[in-house]
Amino acid sequence: MTDTIDQRLSDLGLTLPQAAAPVASYTPVVEAGGMLHISGQLPFRDGQLVTGRLGDGVSLEEGQDAAKLCGLMLVAQVKAALNGDLSRVRRIVKLGVFVNSTPDFTDQPKVANGASDLMVSLFGDAGKHARSAVGVAVLPLGAAVEVDAIIAVD
């Protein structure tokens, strides 16, 4: 599956970033009982954090792109945790999507689609998952979106 995922990334014109180091006292990935629990990942483009608030200067499309960037970082964390072997991924079980948004912004599910659609594009049926999409008042470092995940692996 690693070759397949790499090919799908290439076909989509995407590359995985370097897996980000933690910014506080936690580990990016914990494997327990055949599940990877991946800490919340932030959106980086060209090494720069995507910041801002949906409903106040950040468009829906920019939010979806930020969620997609979080998804790419999730895959990078998985690849690092599995020593480069994405063939061990069996299912994207759940995504938790946190959207830095104003109180009147209600399109968090549409923002979350940026990450969700990426998982399906990369992993096919195994990328279909349960999900929560939540609006929050602020995210670490002013990030526009944060996404965490639970992933079943061999």
TrEMBL record:
Stored InterPro entries: Endoribo_LPSP/chorism_mut-like, RutC-like_sf
Cited Pfam families: YjgF_endoribonc
Protein name per the record: Enamine deaminase RidA, house cleaning of reactive enamine intermediates, YjgF/YER057c/UK114 family
Endoribonuclease L-PSP/chorismate mutase-like domain residues: 7-144
Species this protein is from: Sphingomonas gellani
